[in-house]
Predict the structure.
Amino acid sequence: MKKAFLIFALMIYAVSAMAQLSAADAFTSAPQGVFPLLDRNTRLDMIDYYKNGMSNPSQNALNGRSSISEMTPQTITVKMTDSSSAQLVVLPSPKGSVIALISTVATPGLDSSIKFYDESWAPLDIKGYFTKPGWNEWLTDSGRENEEEVTMQVPFMLASYHIDPSTSRLTLTNNLSRFLDKDVYESLSSYLRPSLVYTWNGKRFVMDK
């Protein structure tokens, strides 16, 4: 009986794994509004180029060039323009796959935003999946003691996001050093954390302690 149950469980797991949405399928099935620079046929061509080891970029709607720089079953990273990129990651959840889409631009310091969608590309409320950190999370202990000085010198935070699908971790990297004057950043660097790390628990990203 136990052997039969084990075989049944393995079959269910195998079927579930086969049915899981791939990053490539998510990329090509996305509505035009999600990737306005790339129509569906262009996205299909880009995947074919990458799979066949071809490095030639594809023309986008701005007459620029776009290309895939990374692709695994769970993630695709696309160089959209010379100053922007996107990372699509398919995350497992009890209610089906969740698509995380990170958009990054150079300002000149890299700055990212993240959105979430279900398998059909219906937008999901970001509050249910990730809470954007404020100064309280970015400041070190000494930074909290000098918060007024930090917030006077730094008008806003610049951080790039990246998800490692092998660990289900989202890393936010502090990029203020590329934006602020060198002397200003050096005077504040001990007050700011270099990065923040979140782990996907199957339902949302939770900050590591």
User: Anything to note?
Assistant: The first strand starts at residue 58 and ends at 59. Residues 177 and 186 are 8 Å apart (CA to CA).
